[in-house]
Design goal:
Structural class of chain C: alpha/beta
Helix content of chain B: 55-70%
Largest sheet of chain B: 2 strands, antiparallel
Order of helices and strands of chain C: HHEHEHEHEEHHEHEHEEHHHHEH
Oligomer: heterotrimer
Number of strands of chain B: 2
Distance between the termini of chain B: 21 Å
Number of helices of chain C: 14
Helix content of chain C: 25-40%
Largest sheet of chain C: 10 strands, mixed
Radius of gyration of chain B: 24 Å
Number of strands of chain C: 10
Strand order of the largest sheet of chain B: 1-2
Shape of chain C: globular
Strand content of chain B: under 5%
Chains: A mainly alpha, B mainly alpha, C alpha/beta
Order of helices and strands of chain B: HEEHHHHHHHHHHHH
Largest interface: A-B, 116 and 116 residues
């Protein structure tokens, strides 16, 4: 591998990361802005952090958002990964309709999905919003993303590896567990990350399926548009980023990321 | 069950063993079941509504059922809107792929044991609120924003460049928002490439570009397709970014539908529009997928 | 109403749901009415006693008005508020759905101090999405803030609870102008909350002369620095008025003219947004359509921003407070509305959000700056010329939206 290419690519990568983090830097800076509106820099203050901790509504919203996201990620990753994997292996007539079904949530406009779920819960369960309903809604739009990501990886995987395991006497399920799963794990993780991003920031589906007491962060923030987004929101975002970064740093130091994303041709682990 | 020779990954000739079918069915069942129950059934409600109309009190009247909403769906005023949506989504996808692919490649090739960390770092900005990130872009791009002030300070420009509320700011915002959806599936696909294969290809073909075109690209095709899919389609549905960063200069079809539902308080019409858009997008996607996949063995 | 048919086999799922909800609501209302009747009787008796005896000293467990009864308060007859009449016990909770920051600092706290009620205060950013959320009967929310002109249709649809005005004695604080609004005569189903005007805000340092006409939004000198509202009724309304028509016209020919005018100006418009505050604060927009009280908010941080109502005329509107028919906490809801009508509370609301209230009694507590600001509190002469945007009939709505969406897309 030529070093030239290496350097250009690395430079490019740095630029992209800078692009990704530019707004984050701005938002952090403006969380210390001494002005009610987030737009113009006036001076330094930590006032917003103080007010943030007195702002129960905002803190509750953050909590609810994480709770829903946690449920959504766990459930949709499990179901979605299974779906993606199964679809990659599936043969027969069920396959085409299943693929269409998989695509449906992605091609449907969010407002249609949000309102349809509202109707569904209203008619069948007489509910107009609740934590459960919201979680179900989030899982529903996340599944397809996870499934497609996992399916792409599983489809490209060399089935000979599984074959080999079967030849060696493993069961269908066992081969899955010992060979396939480790190999598709990066895709599963990727899917989970996507699901989290989707759930955390979701607005349209959430606005119609959240109930009293289940206001999420996006809902709270959007309601602030009319009067200008308060720097308290910058403050909470900064804190979240800081906490997550810290967690990542610790996890990294503890070696959590070693060898998790493998290059292919891993040997099937002996049962 | 006869066994057939196995010659390439994903070959259709792989024999199906006992238990495979059951296992696959079991894997797929929860997902299919969930989607049927929580997606298709609610969608059916929407279809029912689209066959109704609203009365003067904005209530939905389903008796009698009518197709008049569908008759009005193909209103010519929607055509420029759809074209604009397609343009934005396509531009976003192309740029995202152009940026996403090298990054995914770099992480996979040079990330080493830091790969996952680097991937998670890509996602880190998305632990903040989308609206805040968008407002931050406004701070950067506006007339007296960071970019313009920097350019003027350095002397490159006298007057502020019009960057905000333009096509440029919209695509930038959309690419920014969808980059993870491009990078992750791409990475997943690139990462599984066998470096030996690449090395072998390099020996076979005279230069890196050929090796890339004939070996790497076909192998990462599933990832490319997934990335394109997961970027293009949601981009078609993103109306908030064009609204906020684009100042509404471009009207998207999703916005039109939203407006009919909410401002117009016309659920039946909005439902008909939404349903038709869904079906059209679905068909378009299936056609595109079939065309793209035809060359991939065994898919 | 065909949608309401109750013949078996023709009942729609919505009828079923609505019917169920109304039934529940009615039961609650019946219970509520019973309670009120019981206490009403007691209240009447007590007042008799008080009138005969001595004027009420010790506030009972739930004093009905704001703390120090200010001297100049229009107490009208004031009996219900001054005397310690026992009011029905409010429910322990109340669910309120409102715009963010659309209430004065400390108003909820003062309500919670007065009454043993916990207020769950939830927020929305889009009134139409909020209407969907609130549904046919509030869907769990007790109090919300529908726009005045939408009240008639909600009332007819049975979405709003008919108010028991005996629990809202502060209604007396409203001036004569607001005691009998056209959209809800007698304030039977809603109570006015704030009112506003839509006009044009501009940066005095950027514009070459002081504008007086809405034509300034078509002025090529300000190319790329103009903003219109992302609201078809408001923007088309402004244009219709400019052309001398009504903002609520049903004449397609007039609408065509308005759209033609808008299309003329389209190339120089920078953005269509309701968040004019951000756009102007950011500096990209020098002149744009804006709600008067939004402008008041900007002007607090930037004195170069001014406001005017076009000489051709403009639009005004009002937000109301209403109790929804499915409310599970109707008594608390009434008390809350009454609290909001208190002179000082209303003034606190105005002082914080910068929107004028309909509360005559509150005026002496409102900041001078607001009272004298023509953006927030224009002269009556100007106000009378303004139109309210009405809830358009379906087919007319389509006329507007078809043209609007074509204009935006073209």
């Amino acid at each position: 591998m030529s070093h030239e290419r290496n350097r250009w690519l690395a430079a490019f990568a740095v630029t992209v990361y800078a692009f990704l983090f530019a707004p984050i830097v701005i938002l952090i800076i403006f969380s210390f802005n001494d002005a009610r509106r987030v737009f113009v820099w006036r001076g330094f203050t930590t006032e917003w952090y103080g007010r943030l901790f007195a702002n129960d509504d905002l803190l509750d919203a953050v909590l609810v958002t994480f709770q829903v996201a946690a449920v959504a990620v766990v459930v949709s990753t499990v179901i979605g990964a299974a779906l993606g994997l199964g679809l990659a292996r599936l043969r027969g007539r069920g396959r085409a309709p299943a693929e269409m079904l998989l695509l449906l949530p992605i091609v449907t406009p969010e407002i249609v999905m949000g309102l349809s779920l509202l109707l569904f819960f209203l008619q069948l369960f007489d509910s107009t919003g609740s934590f459960g309903q919201l979680s179900i809604a989030h899982v529903t739009f996340c599944i397809s993303y996870v499934a497609i990501t996992v399916r792409a990886r599983a489809a490209g995987m060399d089935p000979q590896l599984e074959e080999a395991a079967r030849d060696l006497g493993d069961t269908a399920l066992g081969a899955l567990r010992h060979v396939t799963l480790p190999l598709i794990m990066p895709a599963v993780v990727a899917g989970a990350l996507l699901a989290f991003a989707l759930s955390f920031d979701d607005y349209v589906v959430t606005v119609f399926n959240s109930g009293i007491g289940t206001t999420t962060l996006p809902l709270y923030i959007y309601s602030a548009i009319k009067f200008g987004v308060s720097p308290e929101i910058n403050a909470i975002s900064t804190i979240i980023v800081a906490v997550v970064s810290l967690a990542l740093l610790i996890a990294w130091r503890l070696g959590a990321f070693r060898g998790a994303a493998r290059t292919p041709v891993a040997e099937p682990e002996a049962a | 069950m006869t066994s057939t020779a196995i010659d390439s990954p994903g070959a259709a000739g792989l024999r199906e063993r006992a238990g495979d079918r059951l296992r696959n069915a079991l894997l797929v069942l929860p997902g299919i079941g969930w989607l049927l129950l929580f997606f298709v059934v609610p969608l059916a409600f929407i279809v029912v509504i689209s066959l109704g109309r609203r009365d003067e009190l904005h209530r939905i009247v389903l008796d009698p059922l009518t197709l008049e909403n569908y008759a009005q769906v193909f209103n010519p005023i929607f055509l420029p809107t759809i074209v604009q949506s397609l343009y934005l989504a396509t531009a976003t996808t192309v740029v995202s792929l152009a940026i996403g692919f090298p990054i995914a490649y770099w992480i996979s090739r040079y990330g080493g044991h830091r790969k996952t960390l680097l991937l998670v770092l890509v996602m880190l900005p998305f632990w903040t609120s989308w609206l805040i990130r968008t407002y931050s872009w406004m701070i950067v791009l506006r007339d007296n924003g960071v970019v313009n002030q920097a350019l003027q300070a350095v002397g490159l420009t006298q007057e502020p460049l019009i960057l905000l509320y333009t096509d440029f700011s919209v695509i930038l915002g959309m690419v920014y928002g969808f980059l993870p959806f491009t990078i992750l599936p791409l990475f997943v696909s690139i990462d599984r490439l066998d470096p030996n294969l690449i090395a072998a290809a390099r020996d076979l073909y005279a230069d890196g570009r050929q090796a890339f075109l004939h070996v790497t690209l076909p192998l990462v095709r599933p990832g490319l397709i997934a990335a394109a899919l997961l970027t293009f389609i949601p981009a078609m549905g993103d109306f908030v970014t064009p609204d906020i960063l684009g100042g509404g200069q471009v009207t998207t079809i999703a916005k039109v539908i939203q407006e009919r539902f909410l401002d117009g308080r016309d659920w039946p019409y909005g439902s008909a529009l939404g349903f038709v858009l869904t079906i059209l997008t679905l068909l378009g996607t299936l056609v595109a997928l079939r065309t793209l996949r035809r060359e991939v063995v065994g898919e | 109403m065909t949608g309401d048919s109750r013949t078996p086999g023709r009942e729609t799922p919505f009828d079923l749901a609505l019917g169920k909800r109304l039934t529940e609501a009615q039961w609650t209302r019946r219970e509520f009415m019973a309670r009120v009747a019981a206490f009403g009787l007691t209240a009447a008796l007590t007042q008799l006693l008080v009138a005969c005896g001595q004027a009420g000293a010790s506030p009972s467990a739930a004093p009905a008005t704001a703390t120090p009864a200010p001297a100049g308060t229009i107490a009208a007859v004031a009996t219900p508020t001054a005397a310690p009449t026992p009011i029905p016990d409010p429910e322990p909770e109340l669910n309120v759905y409102n715009w963010l920051d659309y209430i004065g600092d400390g108003v909820i706290e003062s309500f919670e101090e007065k009454y043993p009620v916990k207020v769950n205060y939830e927020l929305f950013d889009d009134i139409y999405a909020a209407y969907e959320k609130l549904g046919d009967d509030g869907n769990g929310y007790d109090v919300s803030f529908p726009i005045g002109v939408d009240v008639p249709s909600f009332r007819e649809a049975g979405t709003l609870l008919k108010l028991d005005q005996s629990l809202i004695p502060n209604l007396a604080n409203l001036g004569p102008e607001w005691s009998n609004p056209g959209y809800d005569p007698g304030n039977q189903y809603s109570v006015p909350y704030v009112w506003w005007t839509t006009g044009i805000g501009y940066d005095t340092t950027r514009l070459e002369e002081v504008p007086t006409s809405s034509n300034v939004l078509w002025d090529p000198r300000y190319r790329n620095h103009i903003s219109l509202m992302d609201d078809y009724q408001e923007t088309m309304g402004l244009t219709l008025i400019q052309k001398g028509f009504s903002a609520n016209t049903t004449d397609p020919a007039e609408l065509d003219q308005a759209i033609a005018r808008l299309t003329e100006g389209k190339p120089i418009v920078r953005t269509w947004t309701n968040d004019t505050i951000s756009a102007m604060t950011g500096g990209d927009i020098w002149v744009g359509m804006i709600w008067g009280s939004d402008l008041y908010q900007i002007s607090l941080e930037n004195e170069n921003i001014a406001y005017f109502i076009p000489q051709e005329g403009g639009v005004r509107g009002s937000d109301t407070m209403a109790i929804y028919s499915g409310a599970e906490h109707p008594i608390a809801a009434h008390l809350f509305i009454n609290h909001m009508l208190d002179a000082q509370v209303s003034a606190a609301n105005t002082n914080f959000i910068g929107y004028m209230g309909p509360n005559l009694a509150a005026q002496e507590f409102i900041d001078e700056a607001i009272l004298n600001d023509p953006a927030v509190n224009p002269d009556k002469a100007i106000l009378d010329k303004l139109e309210e945007l009405l809830d358009l009939p379906n087919d007319v709505d389509k006329l507007y939206l078809d043209r609007w969406q074509a204009y935006r897309a073209g």
